[in-house]
Amino acid sequence: MLRLALGLLRARPSLYAGPATALLMAVAVITMFGSLIATAIGGHGGSRLGAIGGAFGEIAMLMALFTVTNTLSFSVRGQARDMALLRTSGATPAQIKRLVRCQVLWLTLIVSPPAWLLGSWGAERFLAELAARDIVPAEARVVWSLWPLLIGTVVTLLVGAGAARIAARRVVCGRPSTVLARTAEQTKMGWLRGIAGLLVIAGSVPLVMFTAGQPADKSAQLALLGSLIFLVAAGLLGPLLARLSIVVLGVPFRLMGRRHGGDAGGALAADNLRGHAYRLSSAVVPIALLVGLSTTFASVSGTFQEVAPPGAYAESDNWLRGVELAMLAGFGAVATVNTLASLTTARRREYALLTLTGATRRQLIRMLGTEAVLTALAGVVLGLLVAAPMSMAFASAATGELLPTIAFPTYAPLVLGPVVLTVLTILFTGARATSEPAVTAVAAP
How would DSSP label each residue in 63-126? Predict the structure, then answer.
C-alpha cells in the first residue's frame, strides 16, 4: 500500500501541492512553538513564554486541521476516478482509506525536514523579537531539543490522518459507479449539516455574551477564538449563505446584461454561481476566513489603541496579535489558493463545451473575471458577518459601545488582499484551463 501511495503521488504531484504546503506549514509552526514551550520549561525564557507558545500552538493546530482537511479533500476528489477504478478491481473501502492515509504519511515525511529547519529558524526569530520588546528576558535563547521536531511531525500526521478519513469518506461511500457523479458535483447541503450549523451558532451566543463581560485583554483573545467558531458555522451553512449572497450581489450584473442589449456575461456568471452553490461555498469560506480574522484583528487592535494607555505592554500585545493574524492568514491563503485553483481547473470540460458552442476565449476569461469578483465579494460579505458578533462583543467589553474602532488605512489592505488573491488565482488558473484545445478537454476524464 505504501508503494502504491507513493506511485500515485509521483504520477500527479501537482494534485498534492496544496496538501504538501499545508502539512509543511503545520509541522513548521508546531515545531516553532513547541521549541518555545521547551525553552520555557527549561527556565530560559521567562514565565510568559510558555503561555505565548501554548496559545499560539493551540490556534496553529486548529488552523492546521482546517487547512489540511480543506486541501486534502480537493486532492482526494481529484483522484476519484482512480479510486473508483480500484474499487471496481476489488479494493475495499477500508483499503482506499488506508491508501489516502499512506499518501498523507509520505507527504508528512517528505515535508518534515524542511519544515523542521523553517520552524527552528522561526523560533529563533520570534524569541529575538520577544526579547527586543521586553516580553522575555534579553538573554533568552532557544533550547534545542529533538522533541519539538518529533512532536511537530507526529501531531501533523495525526491531523492529516483525521483529515484523510474525512476526505476519503465521500469517495468510498456507495457504489463505485455512483461515486464519480456525487464527487463531481453535490448540489444539496443536507439537513444534518444545516442543523449542525444552526447548533454551532446557537452555542456561540453564550460565548458572545461572556466575551462582552470580560476584561479587555481576555476579551481580545476570546474575540479571535469566537470568530473561528463562527467560521465553522459559516462552513457548515456555506451553500445556503453562498447562494443568498450571490442572489443579492448578482443583481447589478444581471441588470448590466439587460442594459447592454443582452450581453449576458455578467448574468451568466451570476446564474452559474447561484446554480452551483455547493461548489461556490468551498471557494467562499476560505475567503471569509481571511476577511473575518482580519476584521476581528482590526477591530481589536483599533479599539485597544483608542482605550489603552500608551506603553510597552499595549504595543507588545498588539504586535503579538499581529503575528497571530499573520500566521492565520498564511494558513487561510493556502486554503484559498488551493480551493480556487482546484475548482477552476476542475471545470475545464465546462469551458471546452462553451467553446464548442461558440464562446470565444476572451468571453470565457471575462466570465471568469466576473465570477472571481462575485466570489470575492461574497467572501467579504460573509467574512464581515462572521466578524461582527465577536468584534461588537469586544468593543462592548473595552469601551461600553457596540461599534469597534477600526483604523481603515490599516484595515483596507487586509480586506483588499483576499480580493486580489481571489481574482488573480481564478484568472490565472482559468487562463491555463482554457488554453487546452476544446476537443481534447472534452475527451479528458
Answer: HHHHHHHHHHHHHHHHTHHHHHHHHHTT--HHHHHHHHHHHHHHHHHHHHHHHHHHHHHHHHHH
Cβ neighbours around 439 below 10 Å, total: 11
Distance CA 430, CA 425 (A): 8
* DSSP single-letter state for residue 16: G
Say how far apart CA 52 and CA 260 lie, in whole Å. Answer: 57
DSSP for residue 300: H
Coil, helix or strand at residue 236: helix
Q: What is the pLDDT of residues 112-157, one digit of tens each?
A: 999 999 999 999 999 999 888 888 888 888 888 898 999 999 988 9
Q: How far apart are CA 162 and CA 158, in angstroms?
A: 6
CA distance 142 to 39: 6
Rounded distance between C-alpha atoms, residue 388 and residue 396, angstroms: 12
How far lies 64's CA from each of 76, 86, 383, in Å? 18, 30, 19
CA nearest neighbour of 337 among 426, 234, 256: 426
Q: CA 274 → CA 143, 295, 400, distances in Å?
A: 54, 26, 40
Q: Phi and psi of 379, rounded to 5°?
A: -65, -40
How far apart CA 22 and CA 152 sit, in angstroms, is: 13
196: Cβ contacts below 8 Å, ≥ 6 apart: 236
Q: Which residue has the cell 443568498?
A: 244
Nearest one of 272, 251, 257, 245 to 383, comparing CA atoms:
245
pLDDT at 189: 61
- Return d(Cα 348, Cα 433) in angstroms, integer: 5
Q: How many CA atoms, within 13 angstroms, populate the side-chain half-sphere of residue 316?
A: 15
Amino acid letter at 16? Answer: Y
Q: What is the pLDDT of residues 228-244, one digit of tens each?
A: 888 888 878 877 887 77
Q: For residue 280, which of 333, 327, 340, 223 has the smallest C-alpha distance?
A: 340
